[in-house]
Structures are given as structure tokens and as C-alpha cells.
Amino acid sequence: MISMTTPPTNPLFANPLFANPLFARLDSAERILVAGAGGGFDIYAGLPVALSLLHQGKDVRLANLSFSALEGLPVDAWLAPDVAVITPETSLHQTYFPERTLAQWLELHHYPSTVHAFARVGVQPLRAAYRALIERYDIDAVVLVDGGTDILMRGDESGLGTPEEDLTSVAALAGIDVPERLVVSIGFGIDAHHGVSHGLVLENIAALERDGAFLGAFSVPRTTREGALFVEAVAHAQKHTPDHPSIVNGSIAAAVRGAFGDVHFTSRTRGSELFINPLMSLCFAFELEGLARNCAYLDRIEHTHLMRQVSSAIELFREEISRRPPRRIPH
Q: Which of 45, 134, 194, 204 sits CB 3.0–4.6 Å from 139 for a disulfide?
């Protein structure tokens, strides 16, 4: 037993309780990249952190693994192969374009309004694209954000959700030397409709804690400036993408607003039972290196160039292993 007078020797005790470990790790960083890991609207899930860093005076760049048809962009939109610079005026003839929609919202609020879009590629080209972006802006910290909990799956769970893009992003950044590489997962419980057992998610977080990679959790209250702006940004995105609004961010925003239970905000969820709850507004933070170390199949996707190669590698890995059954959360 450790007495109250025992001086701490573990360096993890360096931060007092009132200092958030995620932001403490980013305190000395000057140029930070906040990136959506899983495609679609994932970069919106990173807005609370990104806006908080901007409000602290940090130089913050935004990026997202994109599901949009980036091949239709003009030549001058490309910063490097597989990474494009998206502004409010970027021309792409489709209504589903989360990166441009976010850029337009940022411009409305007088924030830096550039959002970078990564092509949906395998680990090797995505790493090259990340490296080009990091070198262009001299980035000294990366925060990779997942809307949901797919990014926390080790590979042996009963259901993985849709981890291909998330873990491709993790693997790409695991091979780049940046002073700080962190991961944030927000939206606990959302991935249940994709077969994720959140009892196993909690088991994985406990393992990451034992490994020294878990940096704690914090909520995004609507009474904060960042929380209110996040809710507004999601509403703006839903208005401008009426045919395909983000279920993940809509759920998180509903939780931030205090909604609870089977609350629907889009016809896309018709016929399913939702469980909107306060845990969805929690941000769980991790060291990327530890998260990568705990993914059992990351070496299998290391040399991929196409996303379908990532999917195939994960499927093959899953055929070779025994899987942990779902773990029920007592109630």
C-alpha cells in the first residue's frame, strides 16, 4: 500500500489531477495537426480538441481521411500525392464533401479555413502523404481522432466495427517520427450498431492503462465554448449534407445537448434503436505508439498500398485466430 506521504517515483504521476494529460502533453507543441482517422466526418469529432488548441493560440492544421471523390479535384489542389488542400471555394461536383463543408463553417466563424484531405489509400501511400503534410508545416504534434471506438480494437474481438481506415491511419503515423503522436476517441457506445462490444472496449482501455498508454478521459460540455461550437458545426454539416448526415457526430452532438435514449435526428437510423447517453461526449486519450503496439494485426497491413488490401489482410488475420466473445456491461 502506498501511504499519502510516499513520494511518487513513477513519471506518470508528474501531472496533477487538475491538469488534463492530453493538453499537458501538447503544452509545449507549437504546430499541431488534428486529423480524422476513419474517414467521412471524423474530423468533426476532432473539433472540440482543435478549437481548444486554437483558442490557446496554437498553430493548428486540420486533415481528414476522405471518402469524397478527390480524383475530381483540379491539379493545383494537391499539396502532394494523396493529400489535397481543401478551402471553402474548392470545386468538386458532389454534395457529400465533409472537408469542404467544414472549411465553409470555419470561414463563417473566422477560423483558419483550410482542411486537408487524404485519399483513401493503404498504409504506405498514406504515410507518405502524412509525412509530406508534416514536413510542409513543420508539425511537432499529431492528434489522430476517431468518432467512435473502432480505433481501440485489437483485432481479436467478436466484432471490429469498421477498423480499416482507423488502423491504416494509426499504422501510417506509427512509422513517422513526430515529438508527440496522440489518439482521441469520442463517441463511446456509438459503434454498437456495427457489432462492437463496448465491454471489450473497456477491457482494451484497461490494458492500455496497464501499458502506460491511456491518458485519461474528459467530457465536452455544451456550456464550454468548444462544446457549443461543436454542436453548431454538426448542425451546419447536417443542413448542408441532408442526404448523408453523420450518424456518429449527430449522436455525439445529441449527447452534448443532453439528449438521452432512443433519440433520432436522421432517417438513416430509422428502424434501429439508439441509446444516446452522456458517455458519448467523453474524449478518451491515448499515446499512439501504445495503441499501435496493442493492435495484433498492424504488421499485416504495414506494406499495403490499397484500402482493399488492408481489408483483405484483416480478414485473413481474423480467420487464423480465436476471438474474444462479447463482454456484457453489468446493469
A: 134
